[in-house]
Design goal:
By secondary structure, the protein is mainly alpha-helical. It has a domain of 80 residues: Orthogonal Bundle (Arc Repressor Mutant, subunit A). The protein is built from nine helices and seven strands, in the order E-H-H-H-H-H-E-E-H-H-H-H-E-E-E-E. The protein binds a DNA duplex (12 and 12 nucleotides) through strand 2 and helix 8. This is Myb-like domain-containing protein.
DNA sequence: GTAGGGTTAGCC
DNA sequence: GGCTAACCCTAC
């Protein structure tokens, strides 16, 4: 599975008229990713297929609605589906407190919690070591706030996100960007999700939705899963 | 200010 | 030694 972000396009090519609608779509997409990722911390050693199916069954993640968020920059926007709400928008974004109630730091992990790390200050001053600025692992609450922030402001608005969600935090805008990148990276690792999601309705690339596993592309302006 | 490649340190 | 996550560096 390839997940590619095209955030720069998001913020530059959209018409103002549909900007709000597209932002809501974006929120849905990243909320979905956030839920996947955060649950992933808890269920890292579990069968991902079973796990995502459970989420779908519980309704925590609605793959059908997710598909309704799909838009291609090259293809016409699909009509809102019957699953959409009264506004014609989809709203799968939801951070479930139960999903976040996991043992973030002590749960089963391939790599355990990291302690304080140190590094050389510079190649020519290698005799001295100094601590990095933060050296702390992200907490579940921080991840939650990051996902909320990205869902609200979108990817690439790290300074804005910092000011609104991490104002008193040690995390810098760059830290937020890097953490989000790590989250998506981990998300990509679980390729089994691909076949699972493809079993649900999917944009077939030729103007209609279908519910089978023949389609191989999920796409919107900001996210491409191939 | 941001994106993306590079570096580092902890854990297996 | 490999993998991973947090952090650093730098071009744009």
């Amino acid at each position: 599975m390839l997940v590619a972000l095209r955030s720069s396009r998001l913020l530059t090519s959209h018409h103002n008229a549909d900007r709000a609608f597209r932002m809501e779509q974006q929120q849905a997409i990243y909320g979905f990713l956030g839920e996947l990722q955060m649950e992933n911390y808890r269920a890292r050693e579990e069968d991902v297929d079973v796990w995502i199916l459970r989420l779908l069954e519980e309704g925590s993640v609605d793959a059908a609605n997710l598909n309704d968020c799909c838009l291609s920059g090259d293809l016409p926007a699909p009509s809102p589906s019957p699953d959409a709400n009264d506004n014609g928008h989809v709203g799968i974004y939801r951070i479930d407190a139960e999903l976040l109630n996991f043992n973030y730091l002590t749960g089963p992990r391939k790599s355990g919690p990291r302690g304080t790390r140190k590094r050389r200050t510079s190649p020519w001053n290698s005799m001295f070591y100094t601590s990095r600025k933060n050296n702390s692992r992200w907490t579940a609450k921080e991840v939650e706030r990051l996902v909320q922030g990205v869902s609200k402001f979108g990817v690439g608005r790290w300074t804005n996100l910092k000011q609104n969600f991490f104002k008193r935090s040690i995390r810098t805008a760059v830290n937020l960007k890097d953490k989000w990148r790590n989250l998506l990276k981990t998300y990509q690792v679980h390729k089994k999700l691909h076949s699972c999601i493809l079993n649900h309705r999917w944009w077939n690339g030729s103007g209609s939705w279908q519910k089978n596993n023949k389609c191989s592309t999920y796409r919107n302006d900001d996210l491409v899963i191939v």
